[in-house]
# Entry
Amino acid sequence: MKGSICYHKQRKYYYVSWLHKGKRYKIYRYNGEKIYHPDIAKKLVCAMQWDVEHGFFRIEKYTKETPTDVMPYMKKWLGAEKANLSPATYKDYLNSITNHLVPWFKVHCTRCNCTKSGTTPSASSWGISSALAKGS
# Structure
């Protein structure tokens, strides 16, 4: 398991200690609030591990209150799924991303603030159909 849960005795709250690219980070907040219960710290570690396992991990998402750029993730996902899609489906998804999703994010919100929720947003929260999200 990457990341460890620690307790700050003097200040009486938990934090997640995370090693990333040779540097140790201490993450004290989850959903914008300090972590006062070990179960909340476990949720944070799980969210961070999910991001690592799926290739979307960015330490900035957890260390600062900065939004995370959505558009590169869509293109990265499509590239990862290309082998599992028929050529026609791939072309359709590429068209949807290029001609509909990217322009929508440019107009409405070029950045999706994932740090507020503490999790990676689901496709349905972006208004993407479940078929597109599942890659079928």
